[in-house]
Amino acid sequence: MAHDLPLRLGVNIDHVATVRNARGGRTPDPVRAAKLAERAGADGITAHLREDRRHISDADIAGLTEALGVPLNLEMAATDEMQAVALRHTPHAVCLVPEKREERTTEGGLDVAHEEAKLAAFIDPLRTAGARVSLFVAADPVQIEAADRVGAQVVELHTGAYCDAHAEGRPEDRDAEFAALREMAAYAHSLGLEVHAGHGLDYETVMPVAALPEVRELNIGHFLIGEAIFQGLEGAIAEMRRLMAAARAAEEHSQP
Q1: Which among 4, 61, 81, 121 is least buried, having the fewest CB atoms inside 10 angstroms?
Q2: Catalytic residue among 15, 38, 48, 55
Q3: Positive or negative CA dihedral for 89, 57, 51, 14?
Q4: Mean per-residue pLDDT over the chain, rounded
Q5: SS (H, E, C) 59-94
Q6: pLDDT score for 1
Q7: Number of other CB atoms surrounding residue 250 within 10 Å
Q8: From the candidates 15, 38, 75, 214, which is the catalytic residue?
């Protein structure tokens, strides 16, 4: 049953590289941060190799592949260049995301339904090489059904609209966005897709999402790296794990 599934935490270390790149040089080192996150209880590490290399670099991906004892989730756009990187390193997982050069962060989910042929052809060699393929999508049945058709094993539901509505004090929108997440998590699970969620989650927004019984993994980055300034990365991760565990325990206790 879905509520028996464990809940994992993937820690995105992109913005350690953002701080490094703001000044140049080698510090702070994203690989060191990833190892610290691993020791602190992260179940996996996420890194987004952007086409413009604004934070994570190719050398970072090579270093993470060599250093980590937990799975690496490589976020990337569906381009020939990025496919070649993924096939060279064969990370545990590849999460395909939309990417625009002018955006500050990933602004929405993939439009899988309008790119089915392209994405199916793109995914096949990644799966053949042994990577699990995830698609970052909105909580939309059209996109989830298309993700299933093109051969993705995982969908990661974009929680950004839910988090933004909470942060901006729009409770009706927040509740509507969360209802969509809840419904689509169940729907994706019913299709046989593994369900992940992420984008914008923090201590105030994580518990409802963590309580969704079909969700297997949360990927959280910017908030944890920012919070590490105040309480250290280990402390930030420990508190996030505590909230996730409390939410999942409460959900399991509520099941008949």
Answers
A1: 4
A2: 48
A3: positive
A4: 93
A5: HHHHHHHHHCCCCEEEEECCCHHHHHHHHHHCCCEE
A6: 45
A7: 12
A8: 75
The four Cα atoms 172, 174, 175, 178 give a dihedral, to 10 degrees, of 160
Question: Three-class SS of residue 233?
Answer: helix
Residue 117 tokens read as: 């042929």
Single out the residue of 211, 152, 224, 154 nearest to residue 181, CA to CA: 211
- pLDDT 10s digits, 153-177: 999 999 999 999 999 999 999 999 9
199 in active site: yes
Q: Kindly name the residue from 15, 55, 196, 199 that is annotated as catalytic.
A: 199
The answer to whether 222 is a known catalytic residue is: no
pLDDT in tens, 36-63: 999 999 999 999 999 999 999 999 999 9
- CATH of span 2-254: 3.20.20.70
pTM given for the model? 0.93
Nearest to 30 by CA among 40, 18, 22: 18
19: Cα within 13 Å, side-chain hemisphere: 13
- Mapped onto helix, strand or coil, the DSSP state of residue 214 is coil
What token pair was written down for 150?
């093109």
> Is-contact 10 220, C-beta < 8 A?
yes
What span, in angstroms and rounded, lies between the C-alpha atoms of 204 and 206?
A: 6
